Amino acid sequence: MDHLSEAARIRRGVVRLNRRLRQERGNESGLSPNQLIVLGHLHRHRSATPGEIATAERQRAQSLTRTFAELEAEGLIAREPGTVDRRQSVLTLTTAGRRALDRDMAERDVWLAGALASLNATERGVLELAGAIMERLADLEA
Predict the structure, then answer these.
(1) Taking a C-beta distance cutoff of 8 angstroms, is the pair 53, 39 a contact?
(2) Is the pTM of this model over 0.90?
(3) Phi, psi of 114 (to 5 degrees)
(4) Is the dihedral of CA 102, 44, 51, 139 positive or negative?
(5) What is the secondary structure of 86-139 as a DSSP string?
């Protein structure tokens, strides 16, 4: 079965909602998109090597090197030698990093909660289910 038209409609909706959520971010956090990607990855996975983060986020490790250094300098992530290979570093989210990520997400969650209030219970339930399904899709291997 050809799902291209369904895929296009879902993509348009996701892209527009993502754009709106980015607009609802306050400027107070000052976190860049790449910084949010790294903090979010560490929030979900607890710890990871720079290479693991880059691979999971479909980026080159070299392109995230500056981001890792900035987050470490700001105390938002910690870098420790790996337990298996001490030459490889393992990154973890610090308490300050968790707070920064929570603040950033809270700004967007407030707007989204208000927008959800304009929907009926069935529509909100469908969106909640769609959110879980989109997370599963995002985790699929290419």
Answers:
(1) no
(2) no
(3) -65, -40
(4) negative
(5) TTSEEEEE-HHHHHHHHHHHHHHHHHHHHHHTTS-HHHHHHHHHHHHHHHHHHH
pLDDT tens figures, 69-124: 999 999 999 999 877 777 789 999 999 999 999 998 888 899 999 999 999 999 99
Tokens 């500056």 belong to which residue? Answer: 66
Tokens 């219970």, residue? 121
**Structure-token pair, residue 82:** 């790996």
> CB of 60 within 8 A of CB of 122?
no
Cα dihedral sign for 57, 59, 64, 67?
Answer: negative
Other Cβ atoms within 10 Å of 88 Cβ, number: 13
Tokens of 32: 């860049």
- How does strand 77-81 pair with strand 47-48? unpaired
Mean pLDDT of 39-62: 92
